[in-house]
UniProtKB/TrEMBL annotation:
PANTHER family: GOLGI SNARE BET1-RELATED. It is a single-pass membrane protein. Its main location: membrane. InterPro entries: T_SNARE_dom. Residues 1-46 are annotated as: Disordered. SMART domains: t_SNARE (SM00397). This is t-SNARE coiled-coil-like proteiny domain-containing protein. Coiled coil: none annotated. It comes from Mycena sanguinolenta. Keywords: Membrane, Transmembrane, Transmembrane helix, Transport.
Length: 145
């Protein structure tokens, strides 16, 4: 919009676009660590390392159990959505069939109405002539008596 004005004419014209603060490109680091970094302890006893490994495996098993539960919920939801889609597909197919039948009936009715309108148009002059003859006969009878 501002480019439409000539050079120097847009000095006193305010912009319609609001000023936006500059966006942050680097996200702020999380306040707490999600994991503990690996540290190698050469002085650790084999029993301590075995206990640490078992603890890590137990934590991973718990996380895998949670992941498995989440995936099972997603599977159940997907199956329910599939069932709903099948029901709706059937309903839409039935509706399509009914609409096709209704279209056929309406086309037939329209053709019949067109024939009646065409017949009335063609016979309109005959009806008018008959009505005028009838009026003429009534006038002749009235004036003769």
């Amino acid at each position: 919009m501002r480019g439409m004005l000539g050079a120097g004419e847009d000095d006193n014209v305010e912009s319609l676009e609001p000023e936006r603060p500059p966006a942050k490109l680097i996200p702020s680091p999380p306040s707490e660590q999600v994991y503990t970094p690996y540290t190698d302890d050469p002085d650790a006893a084999p029993e301590d390392m075995l206990q640490t490994q078992r603890l890590l495996m137990d934590q991973q098993d718990n996380q895998l159990d949670l992941l498995s539960q989440s995936i099972n919920r997603q599977r159940d939801l997907s199956l329910q959505i599939n069932d709903e889609l099948e029901v709706h597909t059937g309903l839409l197919e039935e509706l399509d069939t009914d609409l096709g039948h209704t279209d056929t009936l309406l086309s037939g009715a329209r053709r019949r109405l067109d024939r009646v309108a065409k017949g009335a148009k063609n016979n309109g002059s005959a009806v008018t002539i008959g009505a005028l003859i009838l009026i003429l006969l009534v006038l002749i009878i009235v004036f003769k008596t």
